Amino acid sequence: MAGLALTDVSKRFGSVSAVDGVSLTVPEGTFVCLLGPSGCGKTTLMRMIAGLEDPTSGEIALNGERLNDIPAHKRDLGMVFQSLALFPHLSVGENIAYPLAIRGRSKVDIGARVNELLDMVQLPGVADRSITQLSGGQRQRVAIARALAVSPRLFLLDEPLSALDAKLREAMQVELRQLQQRLGITTIVVTHDQREAMSMSDEIVVMSAGRIQQMAPPIDMYRKPANPFVADFLGQANLLMLRGVHGGAECSAGLISDLDLPAGETRQISVRPEDVAVAPGDAGPIKAKVSFVREMGATIEIHLTAGSERIIAATSPKAHPDCRIGDEVSVTIPAEACVVFDKQEA
Length: 346
Ligand code: ATP
Fold this sequence. Notes:
Layout lengths: L2 E11 L2 E12 L3 E5 L6 H9 L6 E6 L2 E2 L10 E5 L10 H10 L5 H14 L15 H13 L5 E5 L7 H18 L2 E6 L2 H7 L2 E6 L2 E6 L1 H6 L4 H6 L4 E8 L2 E4 L2 E4 L8 E6 L5 E4 L5 E10 L4 E7 L2 E7 L12 E5 L6 E2 L6
Parallel strand pairs: 3-8, 3-9, 6-7, 7-8
Antiparallel strand pairs: 1-2, 1-4, 4-5, 9-10, 11-12, 11-14, 12-13, 14-20, 15-19, 16-17, 16-19, 17-18
Helix pairs in contact: 2-3, 2-4, 3-4
Bound molecules: adenosine-5'-triphosphate.
Adenosine-5'-triphosphate binds next to strand 2 and helix 1.
Keywords: ATP-binding, Nucleotide-binding, Transport
GO molecular function: ATP binding
Pfam families: ABC_tran, TOBE_2
């Protein structure tokens, strides 16, 4: 099969189970983000793919070839780490040339390739500069160019953008994605930043405690999270406990009409803030009080207390120009916006 395939891969460090039975396939040419909280095993999984760590069990294959017994330097991968690991005493050009030189390429070939790579990462004409003369974003591009110098079969990046400030980081997310699409290279990025994962990936893999919680295209995962952990980790989620009643399901503060739950059964649901409608007065199905208003520019977040529940609504500021803490409001949650979790996931 073309692409990367992991079959039941586990890694233990003594009594710590860092990665626990992970199976996934990354089709050739796709961009996948490994996303999860600190300590969930993303870096360990990436290091096993790279050959920097041996799996305790399981198989890793690239384009049908088993990688387990192939050492890191023979796997034909390009890697970028958070630290970038550039050589500060070498020039930009020498840094990019390094992997080509150790493979014995001729000087003429190397010179042409370095220029081509610098053009590719939009840094033309800086080959002779010192690494120390570059900005954070420029160093990032040099590290990417060096990793891609030998046209690897797989491109691995571990928290590549986390050292950059917010604005530059967003710009680099777009650049990295465009570059990947242009080259069509299979790419895996480790990140703990859900916005980064949402904006760059073909597919996101959410991990927790060494296991995959869900693998799906970003918008599918956002709309249909597999469990409360994924709902809460990817974007904001209102997680509510509901009980099935005649005509819908109720929480402690009111009713979600037409939500299909067997009467008397209790389930956890997730609803996104932008799907929660807020109106003045107490005529609606769920009565609530405004506890906090967060102005975000393009959107406004209205934090609500409804019975024992806390609910966040996100909307346009124009729709709620006079919203104040302490206002009594009514909340409507459409049944079709609710994701109802299975019993064991609640
Ligand atoms: P972060 O985002 O903080 O880098 P992560 O999701 O990448 O976290 P890992 O670094 O893969 O997580 O770590 C997973 C688990 O394995 C953690 O409990 C960590 O302490 C443990 N671990 C990782 N490397 C080693 C090691 N070399 N020796 C012992 N335990 C380790």
